[in-house]
Write a structure and sequence with these properties.
The protein has helices at residues 23-35, 46-56, 72-79, 96-105, 117-130, 167-178, 186-194, 201-216; strands at residues 15-19, 39-43, 60-64, 87-92, 109-113, 142-144, 147-150, 155-158, 161-163, 183-185, 226-229, 233-236. It is an alpha/beta fold and 238 residues long. The two termini are 34 Å apart.
């Protein structure tokens, strides 16, 4: 199934799917989003959320991690199979592992409970303005040494073997390869791959770089391709 293509439209015409099994939170978010001019669709479990995301084609999904029937991480994974819709996860403070996993599976941002409504609304507005995470550059095949990345097919070949990458891993590797031989700062990686400044940015980037190294390096403990440039960021070498 083809993924959606987003077009610019006025905020008041944008539709948001909000998913939370706590009725009070769901109704509070719905009320404040509608008061801000958005159209709102709601769900109380992950399975219904996936169905609504496919049928309603929202411009943004707000998805709680702790959900019945299908949890938020799995729901995010299912939605990513057919849509590039921006997804903001709602998480508790003690769900650090789930935060990283959700971002790895395709979420674009997260908001930690409890949160202030003005912060939540600001995140929603910023995410809608940006749309999905972007990586600059044409969809041309990149071949550097033993690594070939084909953005148009979302395909990676390392030393003659095809390697599966999650969405954030692919975007991160593409940005590094497009800037091979140059240092890409952590802030640039954050802006171009995740598209939003969120708490825990250094840990998240470090985790994704480690996962990439495990998939493309001969020895991930002594990386030859994705090199750390201390106090600055990372550099890709062919």
């Amino acid at each position: 199934m083809m993924q959606r293509t987003f077009t610019k439209q006025a905020d008041f015409d944008k539709k948001i799917l909000v998913v939370d099994d706590e009725s009070a939170i769901l109704q509070t978010l719905r009320f404040n989003l509608e008061r801000s001019g958005y159209r709102v669709v709601t769900a109380g479990d992950g399975r219904t959320a996936v169905s609504l995301a496919q049928r309603e084609e929202p411009d943004l999904v707000v998805l709680d991690i702790m959900l019945p029937v299908l949890d938020g991480v799995e729901a995010c994974k299912e939605i990513r199979k057919f849509s590039t819709v921006p997804i903001i996860m709602l998480t508790a403070k003690d769900q650090e592992i789930d935060k990283v996993l959700a971002l790895e599976l395709g979420a674009d941002d997260y908001v930690t409970k409890p949160f202030a409504l003005h912060e939540f609304l600001a995140r929603v507005k910023a995410r809608l303005r940006r749309g999905g995470p972007l990586v600059v550059g044409p969809d041309e095949t990149l071949t550097l040494g033993e690594i070939t990345l084909d953005p148009s097919r979302q395909r990676l070949v390392v030393r003659g073997e095809e390697v599966a990458l999650a969405p954030k891993e692919f975007s991160l590797l593409r940005l590094l390869m497009e800037n091979h031989g140059r240092v890409v700062t952590r802030q640039t990686l954050l802006d171009k791959v995740w598209g939003y400044d969120f708490d825990g940015e250094h840990q998240t980037i470090s985790v994704h770089v480690r996962w990439l190294r495990e998939k493309i390096e001969v020895d991930s403990r002594n990386p030859r391709h994705i090199v750390t440039v201390r106090s600055r960021g990372y550099m890709f070498r062919g």
